[in-house]
Amino acid sequence: MTALAHALVDKVVWTILPDIKGRMPMANAAQNRAMRNYRARLISRGFSRFEIMALDRDRDLIRALARRLAEGGSAAEEVRAAVKTLVASEPAQPGGILAALRRSPLVGADLDLARPQVTRDIQALGAYHPGVGR
According to the model, what pLDDT value does residue 22 have? Predict the structure, then answer.
């Protein structure tokens, strides 16, 4: 194949089938260098580029989540912990609520938790309740 034919085929492939061939090439060396420098700066800050497969409707959600995590700070740590808990492969162990209640500072505080028993005479209230009093 001649150089001209090769260039023509390459142009057709880039124009018609960019998803198969890959992204469109950068226009010049300066753009390539700028992109390389930008990505190097991201790597030096601890960032990493990666591709994920997700539903299109989740795109904004995933980007917002990534942005929040990249900000750092206590808010990012809270979000990270919540997401880790939600996507954990193991289900929560039974009795977790009971264990949390037992750790409460009010354990052994002699609280009177008894509630008065209230009885109502439904017919005296004049309300109609199906199956009651008929």
Answer: 52
